[in-house]
Specification:
The complex is a heterodimer of chains A (about 350) and B (about 350).
Chain A (H helix, E strand, L loop, with lengths): L6 E2 L19 H26 L13 H8 L7 E3 L5 H7 L3 H8 L13 E2 L9 H15 L5 E6 L6 H12 L4 E7 L2 E2 L2 E2 H4 L16 E5 L3 H16 L5 E6 L18 H11 L1 H11 L5 H23 L8 H4 L7 H11 L5
Parallel strand pairs in A: 1-8, 2-3, 2-4, 4-5, 5-9, 8-9
Antiparallel strand pairs in A: 6-7
Helix pairs in contact in A: 1-2, 1-3, 1-10, 1-11, 2-3, 2-8, 4-11, 5-6
Chain B lengths: L6 H7 L2 E4 L1 H15 L3 E5 L15 H5 L4 E3 L4 H13 L3 E5 L10 H8 L2 H4 L9 E6 L14 H5 L5 E3 L4 H13 L4 E6 L8 E4 L11 E4 L4 E5 L4 H11 L6 E5 L2 E3 L3 H11 L2 E5 L7 H13 L8 E4 L11 H4 L3 H12 L2
Parallel strand pairs in B: 2-3, 2-4, 4-5, 5-7, 6-7, 10-11, 10-13, 13-14
Antiparallel strand pairs in B: 1-8, 6-12, 9-11
The chains are: A alpha/beta (about 350), B alpha/beta (about 350).
Amino acid sequence: MKEKYPLFVVVDRTGKLVSESYQSEITEEKVQNFYYHMVRIRTFDRKSRALQRQGRIGTYVPFEGQEAAQVGSALALETEDWMFPTYRDHGATLTFGADMDRLLLYWNGRLEGCVPSYTKNIFPIAIPIATQLPNATGAAMAEAYKGTKNVSIAYFGDGATSEGDFHEGINIASVFKAPVVFFNQNNGYAISVPIEKQMNSKTIAQKAQGYGIPGIRVDGMDVFAVHLAVKEACDRARRGEGPTLIEAVTWRFGPHTTADDPTKYRDQEKTEQMREARDPITRLERLMKKYGFWNETWIKQIETEIENELNEAIERMETFQQPDPAHMFDYVFEQPTWTIQEQKEALLGRGGA
Amino acid sequence: MVMIDNRQQYRKQTEQKSFTLIQAITNGLETMLEADDNVLLLGEDIGVNGGVFRATDGLLEKFGEKRVVDTPLSEAGFVGTAVGMAVNGLKPVVEIQFLGFIYPAFEQIATHVTRTRARTMGHFNLPMVIRAPYGAGVRSPEIHSDSIEAFFTHMPGIKVVCPSNAYDAKGLLITSIEDPDPVLFLEPMRLYRGERNDVPLDKYTIELGKGRYVERGDDVTVLAWGAMMPIVEKAVAEMKAKQLTCDVIDLRTLYPLDKEIIAESVQKTGRAVVVHEAQATGGVGSEVSSIINDTSFLYLKAPIERVTGFDVPVPLFSIENDYLPTSERVKRAIEKVVSF
């Protein structure tokens, strides 16, 4: 099956194009855009882990290693498209247009952070695994119903493919040719369970065959390959040709969450070797150096820019208004039911019961 | 005055038709498909087949397959799909073929349907309805007879509605579809083809969260909903021979319950019997008792009686009538609270 679903690669580990035919894809604008976003989300990720260690935010879910998968896919979307992320996809949401300070608020346990963006169509992150796949199908079917060309993209991990909602979401989308891209990031582990114990199939992409839709296996450490594959899947969806399943083969360098100790279940030395050989940002840097896009001044400039943006976002998160317990009551229904109203008054002592 | 009954008003104004409960549902769906282009129906066998109970009969022909969608056999899938549609501007009405088939969709309902407004502070809301026939008494196979409203009244973020007659069914269904929040709409399959009502052909609404006096009396308040209403009414009619009269209340909405009508009636009669076919423990009857306790404890002349199903899986149909509350059991409960 690995032969039938070969890994789609554009830039190899040394930073070289696998075929000269891709030369036209490699423009300075694109290279810089990919690089900027990957550095931006990695900086965010590392900073967030530090904030967690310092007790300034709660448990955090890092995605280091998956930057190419998240940036390459998010940049393939158009403004009006829909994104259905999981808890490890804030690299993608940030790239698509989520608010950074809201994201930090979310990881600090604040309800105000649960809406990733007030301008982009980003569904709040799915915690229950795979449940967002049918949701993405529905949003896509609604776009088709309205007659637009907009698509939706569902993000999910390797573990999600064992859930029923993976099947139900893709099956319905395939039956109705819904304009949706199912974007899997296969990072090798669902917390501690390796892919070999998650599934008997050799690839995730091959599962597409069961739904009669295209399945693409792409090097998730190669931002160009991911971007091209997702763009093509979006184009297919926009043409009314239905969903695509993409497996981006990647690796999570860090723990499952900041509460997890990966040394218990995997060889961290292997991860360090993986980082050495396959780190998506290193690979892009190698390409930049090889093809004449390396520009120290520009890199210094964006690093400063990103640092400032992050510090400002952290500042806004830390000086955000105090949480209001009334909020837990105020948004369950458009109008609170009498039970909720009474309970709110009992807790807050306002208005009298 | 909490009695909500505007039938007379509608009788004067609009054309009526005599409908069974299920015909009223079909007419309510048709009314809303006509009124709002964003309304669409999703479910198993609802299109070509018109639904296993014929609730959507003729709607595919009239509105086409874009509006009346035969889905794969995939409850979690199409409830989850409806979530995505609802956040994206549509108003899906989903049919679960039997309430006992809702279990695969439980996760979608618990984690997205009921929670999305709260967790996004109102940025996303889900104007969607999940319709489901429920209950025993029609000799259905296993699992088809479950009455599990309490799972959902316990779940924050969804209203639970259950009509007992054709007039209420159409009005409550329209209100549910127009509600900006999710509604679980339970249809007593046992009453689908029972008594007929005159139902206005125009659009009309009945406020959610309001019960209705079916009958007025002095001695006991009998509270029920859905398929239990005819059983209660028969019992109460027979009690008249013993010079006992009852307030009979059809609660109609199970979340939020109509606290006012419960308190008003129990404070008058001082005695209450709650009837439901679901299992006793943790049933909605317990919540009704709790409301009586909170609002009317000092008015009570007798402990509250519950007449319910038992804490067992609804049995196969050869003994389902032994599981279900009967008029005899309701009468005994009335006598018990009167003679306390």
